[in-house]
Amino acid sequence: MKKLNFIDLFAGASGMSEGFTKAGFTPVTHIEMNEEACYTIKTRAAYHYLKSKKKLNIYYSYLKQEITREEFYKNIPEEILNSVINVEIDDNSIKDIFKKIDSEKHEIDLIIGGPPCQAYSLLGRHQENIENDPRNKLYIQYGRFLKQYNPKAFVFENVPGMLSANKGQHFKNLKAYFRKLGYEVYHDTLNASDYGVVQARKRIIIVGWKKEADFGFPDFKKEKTKYSVNEAFNDLPKLKPGEGYQFIEYKDLKNKYLKKFELRNGIDFVTQHISRPHNERDLAIYKTAIQKWNNEKVRLKYPDLPNELKTHKNESSFTDRYKVVDGLGVSHTVVAHIAKDGHYYIHPDEEQCRSISVREAARLQSFPDDFYFEGSRSASFKQIGNAVPPLMAYAIANKMKELLCQ
What we know:
By secondary structure, the chain is α/β, with parallel strands linked by helices. The chain contains 15 helices and nine strands.
């Protein structure tokens, strides 16, 4: 099967790229404006390189903090590290980006990526100035890469709010623009829980094909998860609030879920199992929320709290800001706000009574355990919340590979 090269735009922590790489695609370039996310991508690119050379012991030494990042990167060819471009894609930077990519003279088969989606989210749409938000026009920058590299296809990901933003006009403009560039454009709403992810996460997937190779919207193979959050968490050591380990041994053998979807994929220790600290009031609220959910399947509403636990008088807005992750089912959507506080992602185990750890959030997003997030705890949470679940990306990538190789 021929080698298929891709460019990942607005790459974030490279969750989408992880799925495509696992399916056999070769990343040529990742472009991302956040510096910490770029280090995450470099570290993952280093992992894939060392795996291909059967030298993963070097990677594991880095995860165990036996060597510094600088020492670790010395084992990786410069062209791999330099393929990660840390820059905001805009009118000023795009020519330099093209120059860096073109210096390697790769044929590009596919472009993937999703521009920042905050402007299209339900919260973002309450901004008065949404129509002038520059993030709404980032699809034009995306299109400039299509013009430059003329790939056979592209995969564009975003939040469902994109379809209705500005009464649907933004989406109409986007489709018209991509068609003008020579692509037939199709879209559908996918739910990550249909692809092995223990999370109900809906996303718009837009697929474009050059008109001479038009396959319509692909039939991505679904595998509705019959597994639960508790099964995704069960081998992780228990933590108290504020407790955490950069690396620690698993407390249990891997179960069917972790084995089937390769979240535990050869590594014999887990990294970044780190929880955030909480004050006494929050812990009392968490305990109440966990009990209500586990015993009654009822979500705690702010007005229901005892007066001594309330921190403000507004009892009509954001009444569900304390939410327990459903241990017996799939999680609600993990978003970047998890970097600011953990109130919306309370661990279902009353004994632990805390918000979920960095590794638990990564598990909900289907990142394998040997995937390492660079930066602070908050930076890691933000990268995880913004990411495309790798398992969903893998399902998309497998079908795209099959069609591109026909």
